Structures are given as structure tokens and as C-alpha cells.
Amino acid sequence: MNKGRLEAFSDGVLAIIITIMVLELKVPKGYGLKGLLPLIPVFGSYVLSFIYVGIYWNNHHHTFQAVKKINGKVLWANLHLLFWLSLFPFATAWMGENNFEPLTLAVYGLILLMAAIAYFILEYFLLQINTKDSVLGKSLQNKYKEYLSPIFYIVGISISFFVPLIASLLYIAVAVIWFLPDKRIEKHFVD
């Protein structure tokens, strides 16, 4: 199977997700800082989600640069990932419009967790057909980020009802961890 179609479809879905999220940003009801202040939670949730979508796009791109083969399981695993990512606009808008209320924060964390699990499943199926000796296999030997992220999400979900600020900071921490350039795959390619 040709991976180009999967990559193009995924890029299109991710572009639509970002478009939907930005369309949720409403024009302020006033002008100046007074009009912008109520939008800070909405804009903050948008920025965080935009960064997450960017991280997934970047990692997806790098992963598929290292992949030689795909199959039907990979196609379904990729759709599974895109399903969870497609819920980002809903969770982002709900959380931002409700000033990071505990339930909205927990749901946001749950969607982040499910997207992380879906990406892990995608990598699993890719590694089944692209051996451990492949560029992908060699690149994904150290998975500390993949193991640390779900722990942060689970803790964030659990404490979102008690200490919402800490939950928010945990979600931000995961974004920061992944935002830092991940050279695991890049180092195997010579420009």
C-alpha cells in the first residue's frame, strides 16, 4: 500500500481541525483590553490545542517519513487517532467557554489521553510491519515521552475536580515535553 494517500488525508483532517478551532474564536463584544479580557480562557484553550495539533502533525509527519510499509491495520489505527483528534475543537471550545471548569478540564484531559493511546496503537501497528531494525524501529526504542504523557494525563484528569490549576499545568507540561524537538527519527535521515 502507498502511504502517500494516508499522509495526505491525515494532513487534510488536521488542517480542518485547526480551521474549526479558529472559527470558534468569536469577535470581542467590546474594544480594547476590556473587550478582550473575557476571551482569555477561550484564546488560552485555543493556543494549547493548536500546539497539540501541531505536535501531532509534526510527529505524524516524522513517523511516516521513517515508514516504508503500511497495511489495513495501520489505516484503521490512523483513523482511530484522527477520531480523537477531531474531538479537540469540541473540547477546546467547551473548556474555554466555561473558564476551565473541572468537568470540561477532565473531558479535555480524557481526549488528550485517548489521542495519546491512539498514537501509541498506530506506532505499534507500524512497528509490526516495519521491523525493529528499520529506521522507525531504531527511532522508537526510547519511549519515555510516550510513557510519561499518559501518566500526566491520568493524574490531570483525576485532580481536575480538586485542583484544576495543577491539571491544566500537567496538560501544558506534556505539550512542552513534546514541543521540544524530538530528534529520534530526524537523526536517522541525512539531508
Automatic annotation (TrEMBL):
<feature type="transmembrane region" description="Helical">
    <location>
        <begin position="6"/>
        <end position="23"/>
    </location>
</feature>
<keyword id="KW-0813">Transport</keyword>
<keyword id="KW-0406">Ion transport</keyword>
<feature type="transmembrane region" description="Helical">
    <location>
        <begin position="147"/>
        <end position="180"/>
    </location>
</feature>
<feature type="transmembrane region" description="Helical">
    <location>
        <begin position="35"/>
        <end position="55"/>
    </location>
</feature>
<keyword id="KW-0631">Potassium channel</keyword>
<keyword id="KW-0812">Transmembrane</keyword>
<keyword id="KW-0633">Potassium transport</keyword>
<protein>
    <submittedName>
        <fullName>DUF1211 domain-containing protein</fullName>
    </submittedName>
</protein>
<dbReference type="Pfam" id="PF06736">
    <property type="entry name" value="TMEM175"/>
</dbReference>
<keyword id="KW-1133">Transmembrane helix</keyword>
<keyword id="KW-0472">Membrane</keyword>
<feature type="transmembrane region" description="Helical">
    <location>
        <begin position="75"/>
        <end position="93"/>
    </location>
</feature>
<dbReference type="InterPro" id="IPR010617">
    <property type="entry name" value="TMEM175-like"/>
</dbReference>
<keyword id="KW-0630">Potassium</keyword>
<keyword id="KW-0407">Ion channel</keyword>
<comment type="similarity">
    <text>Belongs to the TMEM175 family.</text>
</comment>
<feature type="transmembrane region" description="Helical">
    <location>
        <begin position="105"/>
        <end position="127"/>
    </location>
</feature>
